[in-house]
Amino acid sequence: MRTALYCGLLTLLATAGCATAPSVAPPPVDDVPPVAMAPKPKGSAGGVFVGGSSWSMTADGRAFQPGDVLTVILQETTQASKKADTSIGKDSGVSIKAPVLAGKTLKADVGVDATREFSGSASSTQQNTLQGAITVVVHEVLPNGLLRVNGQKVLSLNQGEEFIRLSGYVRSTDVDNDNRVSSQRIANARITYAGQGALADANNAGWLTRLFFSPVMPF
């Protein structure tokens, strides 16, 4: 009876080790609508400058007000590499000559030798690349002219969903004539790219496998 119980527990653990933890979708982006702007005053006396309009002397379609949209070109590439080698060695020896007693040499040679060595090596390499584009909304214009942007893109595929979410601060001078800005020009950028579904679950290790690779394992 106990043997059958133990076999059942082992089978349950092995099956659970293959199960994957359900993928959790990233938290949604703040969908609070941008602050509404007052109607722009019309020019007077035939002037070409209109107060409250874009900061360029010529009219364009770039984002400058809450509620405007701009396209962020994702150009994220990071690469890190680290390597360390350590080698330590030390040799020591002690010898005692044969003692002499009453003019006679005793056969009692004593010697001690010690050797200590240590060698260690470690290396780590990591590389990440993210390319694409996402259109975000201007939620706020700070007093110094920075644009606080926030946006998301959700792709529903046949085997799951893909999420791209971005938030940060953009200088209006970094927005080009096509109303685009590089992700490398965004301050305090928070970029999230994740997914959920069958394909994402297949790439997650089971909880028992993660336990074996966790720091609490002594082996």
From TrEMBL:
GO terms for molecular function: cytoskeletal motor activity. Pfam families: FlgH. It is a lipid-anchor. It comes from the Bacteria. GO terms for cellular component: bacterial-type flagellum basal body, distal rod, L ring; cell outer membrane. It is found in: Cell outer membrane; Bacterial flagellum basal body. The keyword Kinase does not apply. Residues 1-21 form the signal peptide. GO terms for biological process: bacterial-type flagellum-dependent cell motility. Keywords: Bacterial flagellum, Cell outer membrane, Cell projection, Cilium, Flagellum, Lipoprotein, Membrane, Signal. InterPro entries: Flag_Lring. NCBIfam families: PRK00249.1-4. The basal body constitutes a major portion of the flagellar organelle and consists of four rings (L,P,S, and M) mounted on a central rod. Belongs to the FlgH family. Assembles around the rod to form the L-ring and probably protects the motor/basal body from shearing forces during rotation. This is Flagellar L-ring protein. It comes from Caldimonas brevitalea. The gene is flgH.
